[in-house]
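A.,

Following up on our hallway conversation. Structure tokens first:
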């Protein structure tokens, strides 16, 4: 493996498709394998920040917005001791509602697509993996993520309308490839799947017929379990709360598949 971290962005322009669940569990499982992991919460809703043990994100002084605003305003990169939260075996850069203002802030700068890349490149040497839990809205902030990342993982809820929304995201990806040749789609991940239902089968078919030729579709499918929300209620992620639950087991399988594809 390179000395530099591989940067995985968990992205979909839709909300509620399993981005945060995938990002947090993936980061947590990599941490368990003694990898050096940085999880960046890149959604103003701050769900990753909360699930990694911070009850009130809006009370956190320094977040990913602070880091990016410093780069935009002063061309200054804050040192890690100012912002890192060490939690559950990984390093976290939290987010809070301030991130909702990033888009308008970025509109005032030149090279606005490169602000996150500037930051990430400065910490790459410190980690094995950097995982970015993305906001759902496509705009300049998400373009920043695509420019800064090596891989996109696209979770999609096992539901017909979710699959139809993917075309737009993949169109953006093709545009970004021109400026970031490193960027690849690691794959599309079906989440919250209710096995053997008509929907589940139709979604699989639709994914295969629309994307399979150009994009990897992970063989691992994450099942639906009510235990995920239960874990979240206790501010925990499923792999931490119930490591033997089927969802946890399938996230482990999924991670193996991701890493295998990297070899
Ligand atoms: N495999 C799953 N089984 C059951 N519920 C899930 C599963 N994955 C996610 N959820 C629930 O679905 C909701 C949306 O998931 P989340 O990961 O927050 O999506 P996103 O980050 O894309 O908005 C959350 O309430 C979460 O607890
Ligand atoms: Mg989320």
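Then the amino acids I'd put at each of the 263 positions:
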């Amino acid at each position: 493996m390179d000395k530099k971290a591989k940067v995985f962005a968990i992205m979909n322009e839709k909300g509620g498709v399993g981005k945060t669940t995938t990002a947090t569990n993936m980061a947590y499982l990599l941490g368990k394998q003694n990898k050096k992991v940085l999880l960046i919460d890149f959604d103003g809703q701050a769900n990753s920040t909360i699930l990694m043990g911070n009850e009130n994100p809006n009370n956190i002084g320094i977040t990913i917005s602070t880091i990016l605003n410093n780069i935009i305003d002063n061309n200054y990169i804050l040192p890690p001791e100012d912002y890192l939260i060490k939690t559950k075996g990984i390093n976290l850069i939290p987010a809070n509602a301030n991130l909702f203002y990033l888009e308008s802030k970025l509109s005032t700068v030149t090279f606005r697509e490169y602000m996150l890349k500037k930051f990430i490149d400065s910490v790459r040497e410190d980690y094995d993996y950097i995982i970015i839990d993305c906001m759902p809205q496509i705009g300049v902030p998400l373009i920043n993520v695509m420019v800064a990342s090596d891989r996109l993982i696209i979770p999609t809820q096992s539901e017909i309308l979710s699959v139809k929304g993917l075309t737009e995201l993949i169109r953006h990806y093709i545009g970004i490839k021109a400026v970031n040749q490193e960027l690849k789609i690691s794959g599309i991940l079906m989440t919250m799947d209710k096995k053997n239902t008509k929907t589940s089968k139709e979604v699989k078919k639709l994914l295969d017929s629309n994307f399979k030729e150009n994009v990897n579709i992970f063989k691992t499918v994450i099942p639906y379990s009510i235990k995920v929300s239960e874990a979240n209620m206790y501010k925990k992620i499923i792999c931490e709360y119930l490591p033997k639950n089927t969802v946890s087991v399938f996230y482990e399988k999924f991670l193996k598949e991701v890493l295998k594809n990297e070899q």
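The first strand starts at residue 6 and ends at 10. Curious whether your intuition agrees with the design.

B.
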